[in-house]
Amino acid sequence: MPIPSYRHFGPALALLWALPAQAGSERYEIDGRHTRPVFAVKHLGFSTQHGRFNEVRGSIDYDPETGTASIDVTVEAASIDMGADDWDEHMRGPDFFDVTSYPTLIFRAENIVLDASAPSRVKGRLALLGVVRPVELAVSPVRCGLEFSTKRHKCGADVTATIRRAEWGLKKYVPFVADEVQLTIPVEAYRRGP
Hints:
Layout: H1 6-16, E1 26-30, E2 38-43, E3 47-53, E4 56-62, E5 68-76, E6 80-81, H2 85-92, E7 104-113, E8 120-128, E9 131-139, E10 143-147, E11 152-164, E12 180-191
Antiparallel strand pairs: 1-4, 1-12, 2-3, 2-12, 3-6, 4-5, 5-7, 7-8, 8-9, 9-11, 10-11, 11-12
């Protein structure tokens, strides 16, 4: 489902994608310090290059008893980090993430099940460059417990996925810079409240 621009869509997109609270679930707020998506892409046939996004926020409504969950995560596109200032600026520009027009990447998934004893497959929707498309994530077993350093309850997992960037309009230099992108995302989230 294409959308013209988040600048013009803003609140309407939020309402369109509003997530119902899961019965019996608790709200977990994303820990942005320990949730930083990393991507890997083949570069000109020579090597695999990596980048990451440094600013992530969002929430997970999760019921540890049943494993049912809904996920709402926003990534600040301008927080892309390739390890070199000029490269970062190029990736923020119109050839790639066009952060002026599309400042965020959004992932949402509803009515999913996360397993604490085995890997899960999660189907959701990724909004990137004004295009919303389905994406499937592989999620490691979810671990919840008390984080000793903060004395707060936290859940976490490792997430992986493979996408084709051209499906979202990121076509620059394909096929010399590969269309296929590998995603690796460590996710940690604190339970809201005590």
